Input
Amino acid sequence: MLGFRPAIFSAFQGYRRADFFGDLSAGLTVGIIALPLAIGFGIASGVTPQQGLWTGIIAGLAVALLGGSRFQIAGPTGAFVPVLFATVANYGYGGLVVATIMAGVMLVVLGALKMGRLLKFFPYPVVAGFTSGIAVIIFCGQLDEFLGLGLKMPEHVPQQIALRAGHLASVNWYAAAIGALSVAIVYLWPRMSRRVPGSIVAVGAAALVAYFGHLLVATIGSNFGGIATGFPRWHFPDISLETMRQLMGPAFTIAALGAIESLLSAMVADGMAETRHDPNQELIGQVSLIFSRRWLGALRGPRSDFAVMVTAFALTVLFDLTVGVAAGMFMAMVLFLRQMEAVSHIRLVTPESEPESPGTNSMHGKKIPEGVVLYRIEGPLFFAAAENLDQALRGSGRKPKIVIFRMRNVPAIDASGLHAFRVAIQKLHRDGVKVFLTAVQPQPMKVMFESGLVNWLGENKFCADLDQALAACKQALGTPS
Output
């Protein structure tokens, strides 16, 4: 049964007067910052300013009431701009609404199935790559307004750059000057004061300069006729199976991006406030919904991770977010499998080749009966390491009577690894070779039980340690213990 318990249910336990005024100050600050962002990101996404503004209001309230973090505040974010813009361009505003509803259903299902914590395994190079790519897409997408060109932009960055390059003679230098002033204020204002957000100062200062300087630049009023007052009109979009099929890709992208951004920011808030959020509840609460340092950090890390980040970045910029994330995830998966294969080994062992410290699992000081061969399996036994098992058995050059597989260093086994292991044992049995296993860990033992391998092989073939296995070998060979 779904444990629906938003963080607001426990947020007021021990709530004090000082907490209220602190929250009031924080709310005013975030609201002031979110106001121009909601309008700006709404325009950049291909909708009207009032739609962006109302989306910020409704999303903020919904996530605050339904989310799983005490400090999580939902607001406009640039990461969604290219996704939403492409959806509006291809399917219209009604398609965007349907895709958002579908994404919300996906997030609720993920939260209900307790899948929130699995997102912590999302590779950082992929996140850094596609978010950096999104930053470039947004930057390139806003150059048209920055330069005052008034062009209708194509969807992808290379075409946008080529189109602008052919119209540089038509740059509105008043608009470019206002844009440069706004950027300078945003980056320089925090050095002078942090009480008032730089974005608010930039909006106010640029508006005053344009108004009193009578500069010929486009405004929200001239482009959109101003922002309508009053509540928005409610309209439910037409939903059909064909529409849902077409919008499955954008909906999945919106859901994945919303989940990742929400849970990552909640983790940052937990680190600052020393709290813990509920990731599953946070996914349910999201139904409404750094470029210099990341690259330097990746350069100092493994080259393979840097390659994943560059690939996700490049494909996001050149094609779209879905392609970039999919390619980055595929590369990260392949690299992970390579790393797992590198730590998986099957070795023929002898007391002379691998002496160990004394103990029941040690070969030190023990006499191995004639005709008994031991193999040590180390690391997870999964499909990428299955071939190593067959090579190790064929490469020994011996015809033993008994084989002991030492498995205390095997933490996990999957279906492919289990199949390869069963096939190897079957080959040994056909040659009249008995098989014993020692120190099998809980997860592999559970898999072997459920697959029927334990019943097929016999429980007496599973030994707690090497001493017990050697005693069983002597008994099977008819050698006195």
The radius of gyration is 31 Å.
